[in-house]
Amino acid sequence: MENLISRYPNLQIKTFEYIRITPGLFREALEQLSDTKQKFKHETKPHENKNHSKNIDKKGSFLDRFKPKPKAPPVLQATDSLTRELDKVSRGISRIVAITGHSGCGITSTTINVASEASKRGLSVLIVDLDIEYRSTNMYFSSFHERTKRDEDINASLIRTLARPQDYLTTAYHLKENMWLTGLGYSFSDRKLMEQFYTSSKLVGLLSLLRNKFNLILLDLPMNSLDQFREALIHIDSFGLCIPNNLYAVLSTLKNVEESLDKENAAYLNAKSKVIVTKYNDRSRFQGDIFTPDRVSAVTASGLLESFTYEMKVAGHVSYDTDFDSQIETDVPLVHSNKDHERAYGNILLRLLEGSS
Which structural domains are found in the chain, ordered by start? Predict the structure, then answer.
């Protein structure tokens, strides 16, 4: 195309890394075209207003110096503290975060809403659904689920992405402009492929290669799968440890840690974790006092498990309500429909992006 470009100065070529042309590329091309037209019009204008140069050279009146100078337009800034803090996050940031916890504590819901909030804030996100038992991302993204039923490649998206992470543009499912998902469809059942590619070494390869392709890689990683990916734990910047604020949940979490990891890796998980209190109940009490998120963190690391004694920061809490069911039925994550949950998950996102404890 170089010959054409040299012959026709108004011809421009735009390239893009994605297979599909995104709205962002159209917008960028149109803005550039508009700038080019203005420049071309200015350079080729045959006649100027005869009085134009005279007007430029004409000296202003003596009284003009006493006229007030026009005020510069105000710079628009975010008014809420959360937006201001998230705006400070560098768009060059790269974080790998695993959301984990015992079964049923809200791991997938937290993953989906944190990812959606990050995407809404302009960060590029890859969700990796490593929960091959429940595969719950199919419930939250109906477009992905429908695609898995008619496209065998997307049905095996997780396996194909683990096998060839460099081809993520075709192996992962593109949810929206800056948000991708790789997981398994409900009908995928090839055990040999799972044994070959659903491994710690393959996950390490994926994280190493794609770390610099996304601002945030979010792993939906159930606690009972941690042992299988122990070699990959060191590549994860921080863990969001989901724990509801009741004693049963705390004890279940610690029991899962003890069963899933040896003491060294349990201590590593503890040191890298920030507590996310899911299904928060403001009436729940422990030893007569309200079971606050800070107390949940303190009790979890109080020595009930010998290898779990590092103090953990609290990333945030999310109150439970009936909207949790509606986000599956409507295919709309809570951060897009509920201001309170938008604020809650936004704070959690901010704390997790800060890195390790």
Answer: 2-42 (no CATH), 93-353 (3.40.50.300)
